[in-house]
Amino acid sequence: MNILGIDIGGSAVKGAPVDTKTGKLLAERLRIEAKGKLTPAQLSAAVAEIVRHFRWRGPIGAGFPGVIHGSTIRTSANLSKRFIGCDLAALIAKAAKTRGAVRVLNDADAAGIAEMRFGAGRKRKDSVLVLTLGTGVGSAMFFNGLLFPNTEFGHLPCNGHSIEKDVAASARKLQNLSWHKWGCRLGDYIRTLETLVAPAFIIIGGGVSARHEKFFKYLKTRAPVVPAEFLNEAGIVGAALYAGPAK
């Protein structure tokens, strides 16, 4: 079954059709840069452009960087606050002008689903923590392949702000941190998560995972840590898988 996957992020909206039997993109993804904090109107325009680009008329899955209950957005830390209370599935369906099914979920949960089905977490039956490092920090927890949704560990409080302000990939660039300093800071954060949830296996995704050799050596975690296999395509693939037939 082919499904259009859409990954809504702090810096861009990305989409591509996905073969849900293999987890492969059926075409090169389209990336639309966000101008400032993305608003519902801007998202609608981006979705419409992606749908036109791929001439899409079928089902759609989308991941959003916030807590999703059903199809309603409950938090929006790095995008416009206008999203809070929005029915994301209805917004996307209207923008796409489709009567096909639209399913939505947290973006890190989507990335985790891709990694657990076809990537670094496939066949694992123990507890797995997936972290996505980008504009913010997304997190997803799995046990025996089953998702516990909306963990949002990137928003643990630290000195009056969310911890992601210190450990996201964007923080390294904004604060001009060396790989060593940022890696040690990230390692401290992950060890805190190990105290809270004690994962048996950790997967780190986001674009920065392609450069994992720069910082993995500084993490010093109890659980094994591996880079995500899908890199920046994980959110697209996972959103499509979530919208596909149940496994």
From TrEMBL:
Record-level Gene Ontology MF annotations: kinase activity
Keywords from the named record: Kinase, Membrane, Transferase, Transmembrane, Transmembrane helix
Chain segments annotated as transmembrane: 127-147, 189-210
Matching InterPro entries: ATPase_NBD, ROK
Organism superkingdom: Bacteria
Name of the protein this chain belongs to: Polyphosphate glucokinase
Organism: Termitidicoccus mucosus
The organism's taxonomic lineage, starting at the top: Bacteria, Pseudomonadati, Verrucomicrobiota, Opitutia, Opitutales
